[in-house]
Amino acid sequence: MKIDYRKKSETLYCFSPLVTLLTGALELACVLYAFATYRATPFGRTATLLVFLLAIFQFSEYAICSGGSIALWNKIGYAAIALLPATGVHMAELVTKKTFWTPLSYAAGIAVALLILIPGGAFITTYCTGTFVLFELDAFPSSVLGIYYFLFLLTPMAKLAVHLVRKQKNAHLILWMFLGYLSFLVPTLTVTLLFASSQSGIPSIMCGFAVLLACIVIFKILPLYHKKKSAKLKVV
Q1: Whether 62 contacts 21, CB under 8 Å
Q2: CATH of the domain at 16
Q3: Of 56, 58, 153, 208, which residue is least crowded by CB atoms under 10 Å?
C-alpha cells in the first residue's frame, strides 16, 4: 500500500485537509454538545454516535494527509464509516417501528468493520489529492462495502418515505430525518456526476458533505425528538 500526494486541482477545495480538520473539529464539538444534552435517551445516544463516527473519519483523512500511519488511519476511518448506515437504520426505526433491520444492520456493519480491520490487503492504494482522499480497495471488500451501504441507506430512507406518504405521527421529525439523508447524498451524487475523476473519492466526498447531516441531526432532529418526548411525558 502506498500514499500518493497528487497535484492540487483547481476545484473541490471544500475537501482540502484544512477544511477536513475543521469539519472534524466542528463535528466533535457537536458530539460533546449532544452527549451533554441528549444522552438520556436511546435516540440521543444513537444520534451522538453517528456524528462521532463522522468526526473519526474526518480526523482519519487529515492524519492520512499529514504524514500519519496510512495503514492505521485507513482502517480506523473505514471501520468508523462501516457503522454509519447501521446508526441511521437504528434512528429511523426509533421513530417509526423497530424491526429486524436494526440488529441486522449492526451485525452487517460490524462484519464489514472486521473485514476492514483484519490484517491483510483490504487497501491497495491511498491517494491524498489535496482536495479529498481517494481510497482504492481490493475488489471483494469494495463490493461488500458497496452492497452494505446501498442496502442500509436505502432501507431507512424507504421506511421514512412510507411514513411520510401515509402521514403518520412524527411527520415533521421524519421529514427532517429524510432531508438529512438527502443533504449529503444529493451533493455527493452531483459532484461525482460532474467530475468523473472524483468517483474513487466517494467516501471522502460523502463524509465531507455529511457535516450538513451532522448539523441537521444536532440542531433540528434531536431538539424535535426530545421536544415531542417531553410533551408526551407532560400529557401522561
Answers
A1: yes
A2: 1.20.1070.10
A3: 153
- Does residue 181 lie in a domain region? yes
Summarize the confidence of residues 32-49 as an average pLDDT.
96
Rg value, the chain, Cα: 18
Classify strands 123-128 and 2-5 as parallel, antiparallel or unpaired.
parallel
pLDDT at residue 197, rounded to an integer: 60
Look at residue 23 and tell me if it is in a domain: yes
Total Cβ atoms within 10 A of residue 191: 22
How many folded domains does the chain comprise?
1
61-70, 113-122, 189-198: segment of lowest average pLDDT: 189-198
Question: Which amino acid, one-letter code, is at 139?
Answer: A
Per-residue pLDDT averaged across 8-35, rounded?
76
Query: Which residue range forms the structural domain that includes residue 187?
Result: 12-225
CA distance 168 to 174: 9
Return the closest-CA partner of residue 210 out of 68, 74, 87, 114. Answer: 87
Query: Is 63 a domain residue?
Result: yes
> What is the rounded CA–CA span in Å between residue 58 and residue 48?
16
Determine, yes or no, domain membership for 103: yes
